[in-house]
């Protein structure tokens, strides 16, 4: 199958005012000169024939291409066209230039962007990623988050009307629900896969296998924790300051910092799988609730289970604490600086949630 059809013949004058058709001439014609443009081996040969008063551009069919499709550069012919664009009749020049520009953007640039995004999300070499290697970025984002949500944001919105962010909130919450479901499935698989190596997991051969095969999921979870900061930005832009509690801000900030520490130190204990599998499943339900509530007051009659959602959040922290405590006391889990910080963070969040539950539901 030819990539391009031959261009139509070009008319020239025969000297008596009568036009005559000039067809592509043979290469052995004394009055013609043929320039051959190299092409892929054993593929169609592209040639250009220049006559006395006109220039005709055409293809000479050769043997069919014997290369595999995967070896053929899709831009080969476009590059050949670009070299001798001045030999192409004018009506075709504009179209070919436009096609080349669109083609190169669509295939080359988009392929490069896709490759960069894939490497960013799915590469196992997360230690070299700037969001991990440079701690100033992580803690800079956390500080900016706290300053914006507690001070700068409310000041900016002071004399402005609240934004109507119904559809961005619906998209954001449903997307986070889906992503947490995906990460929850992965963590459940790890709980089963590495159960036999759960004690002192970092000293086992399975830990090396985990870092090579499944380490990227910890990186993805780290990114999700930063994406969850957008919740609070929505509260600020909608002037829902009553929802920006100390519990909310501390919870989001502390989790981002702890996950950065885990990635930076590559200190993954088996307890992390237990934490993630429980937390991701709770977040699937929680962001589903937020997404539904964003539709408006007409959905409130279907969201009677809000109280049970808070109870589930409290229960998850109790289970996480219990598992970590048993692991520390039996010597099955390391009890180092990272584990101490994580255990203290979970304890603080649990106390704050219990206080929130008491004020919101018990007093009412």
In short:
The protein has 364 residues and is mainly alpha-helical. 60% of the residues lie in helices and 7% in strands.
Account of the protein in words:
It is found in: Membrane. This is Elongation of very long chain fatty acids protein. It is an enzyme of class 2 (transferase). Keywords: Fatty acid biosynthesis, Fatty acid metabolism, Lipid biosynthesis, Lipid metabolism, Membrane, Transferase, Transmembrane, Transmembrane helix. Residues 1-45 are annotated as: Disordered. By secondary structure, this protein is mostly helical. It is 60% helix and 7% strand. It has 12 helices and 5 strands. It has helices at residues 76-83, 90-122, 130-133, 135-156, 166-193, 205-213, 215-227, 230-237, 246-265, 270-293, 306-330, 337-362, and strands at residues 10-13, 19-22, 33-37, 45-50, 55-60. The strands form 2 sheets. A 3-stranded antiparallel β-sheet has the order 3-4-5, with no helix packed on it. A hairpin with a 4-residue loop joins β4 and β5 (55-60). α4 (135-156) packs parallel to α8 and α11 runs antiparallel to α12 (337-362). It is globular. Residues 1-15, 17-72 and 84-89 have low confidence and may be disordered.
